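ok new one. same drill as before - structure tokens go in, u give me an amino acid for every spot. 182 of them this time. try not to just spam alanines like last time pls lmao
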């Protein structure tokens, strides 16, 4: 998994609102200038990269699930977040994204791993959601979402905005890094 990373060089202040607009430049295939339109599956997540969450698999899962009895956050809390998984058997590290999180089963569904998860495997969720996954307003090749001072900008520090442009048959993630100041 490799996301495009962009550092935003502007001032973001605690308590401020910010309207985020991202326009894709993915070729739509109809002409050299046509951008591919984003669809209603386009989402955004805002979070704190300094509050990483560590975990250990407490039950065997599959190539699509991680089970950890300590993952009791609300349903969908981790949806869209990146996750780094370490297979204790071979020591290899894999990166993917959470597609669903369910409190009642303490399960994180992921986009896919090359190995099934086992008891004792570890993982890191490197982004703590301050704004859980939200649907973006789409129009043509642009997606727009307004972050308010009460979610993404409630305190000073580093933030990341993960934006998934969904094109219907495929998608692409982009990560924006920013700093919130007092």
């Amino acid at each position: 998994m490799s996301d495009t990373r962009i550092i935003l060089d502007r001032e973001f202040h605690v308590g401020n609102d910010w309207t985020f607009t991202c326009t894709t430049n993915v070729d739509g295939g109809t002409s050299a200038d046509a951008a591919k339109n984003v669809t209603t599956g386009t989402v955004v997540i805002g979070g704190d990269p300094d509050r990483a969450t560590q975990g250990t698999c407490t039950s065997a899962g599959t190539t699509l699930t991680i089970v950890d009895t300590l993952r009791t956050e609300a349903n969908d809390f981790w949806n869209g977040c990146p996750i780094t998984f370490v297979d204790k058997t071979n020591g290899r590290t894999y990166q993917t994204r959470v597609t669903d999180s369910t409190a009642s089963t303490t399960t994180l569904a992921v986009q896919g791993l090359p190995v099934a998860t086992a008891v004792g495997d570890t993982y890191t969720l490197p982004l703590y959601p301050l704004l859980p996954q939200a649907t973006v307003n789409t129009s043509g090749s642009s997606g727009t979402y307004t972050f308010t001072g009460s979610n993404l900008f409630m305190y000073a520090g580093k933030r990341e905005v993960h934006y998934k442009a969904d094109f219907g048959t495929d998608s692409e993630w982009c990560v924006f890094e920013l700093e919130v100041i007092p």
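The chain has two domains: 4-47+130-181, 53-126. and btw The mean pLDDT is 88.
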